[in-house]
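[09:14] KT: can someone run the structure on this one? pasting the chain below
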Amino acid sequence: MSLDRVALIADIHGNRWALDAVLADIGRRGVGAIFDLGDSLYGPLDPKGTAERLLESGIPSLRGNCDRMLLDPVPATATYAYTVAAVRPEHIAWLRALPPTRRVDGDVLLCHGTPGSDATYLLERPTKHGGLLRPAAEIAAELEGLAAPVVACGHSHVPRAAWLEAGRLVVNPGSVGLPAYDDDVPSRHVMEAGSPHARYAVLTRQGAGWAVEHVAVPYDWAAASSAAREHGREDWAQALLTGRARRG
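[09:31] RB: done, structure tokens below
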């Protein structure tokens, strides 16, 4: 597949309101090729509606770590139970069939976390104050042996573009559906985009390289926040309204 302009989306987390806004914006820009980097359905929002949008659109997707949680037995949480109850068997079958990585036109490698782990941050070193950019040598070590001049990843929900000394470009489009969160794996940390907008990125081939455009799209984040609160996730509700994670 030869593509000179592609849109990258990631970490929708069942936020159908944000996904609809992003897909409409991509359509207005005339970008025909869209790739989803995973973590599409898990969350206290609208996993069923999100699954239906993605299946109808035919967007090529990856399986992220939270997608994998829906396939494997995990300790029960209210959000897990809500998501599993909301989606249909065909949605789970779709997740099960998704690959962990994908190649686009030979030049671009897509993954969720790193090419070898959907649960590892490729670009960030997590801290309680936010994600710090990892040293270039650490990022390059995660990509050793992979011949791809462009790598696209998600997982951290933070939009970034990093340039490595070997001339490799690494892009994270940010999160469509959850602009901030706190987590305790591998240790207590927060990730924040800083605003409630839905995020995605556009890659455009220019000569021998690629241009990167990060896009922040307004949408009805109050509706998404209300859904999160209705389903018992005040932390998500606040993150969706502010783009910032709780601290404590």
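[09:33] KT: thanks! The first helix runs from residue 16 to 29.
[09:34] RB: yep, looked fine to me
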